[in-house]
Give the backbone structure.
Amino acid sequence: MRLIVQKLGGTSVANTERLKNVADIVTKTAQAGNQVVVVVSAQGDTTDDLIVKAAELNDRPSKREMDVLLNTGEMISMSLLAMAIQKLGFPVVSLTGWQIGLETNSNYSDARIKRIAGERLKAELDNGRIVIVAGFQGINQMGDVTTLGRGGSDTTAVALAAFLHADLCRIYTDVDGVYDRDPRLHPDAVKYGRISYDDMLLLARGGARVLHDRCVELARREHVVLEVCSAFSDAPGTIVG
């Protein structure tokens, strides 16, 4: 039995139909005999919408209160996806960052992961459940919720893959892999079948939006094999490792 971590971004879970599509992806992975942990981002423009709502009340809110607010976006995604998977008849549970014991420092809005306790996460997997985890969030030593900043859900997925010694961490995006140029702007862009961590870091730091450099650095340090693929097609993705 393999253990696979799947990360779905905001575009992939943006509405009901896309949530159903993700539920199909996840359950097919489980049906193939794998243990599955899914990390989700907030739906579509939810995070931006919450920032606008905050600004309507206070143009300089504290970072702590913004973290409390922004944490809710991922919680909506995780619970809705769990409901969609339940509808398909699979055992599933959704968990927040603090429920899995993802501990961070207190740098609100751009926190760094210190450790993952993970007892609840492992117990749910041992009980045969698909586990849906809210990305981008954790808890500090004072019990406050925190957010991990840009690329936080990718970082959550890689950190969980490292903690669980996962066989693969699959990052789903709206493109079917890593290209030498943006394929949405350049029809002749070339897709990599495989790319090294170092080359992926160069692309990420050069402006490529497929993966955030922080998550690639973590994957390199912890030897986590990544696959970048599309949530909207069955085309083979790009292996980063």
Summary: The mean pLDDT is 95. The chain has seven helices and twelve strands. Helices lie at 16-31, 46-57, 63-87, 119-126, 152-164, 197-205, 213-222.
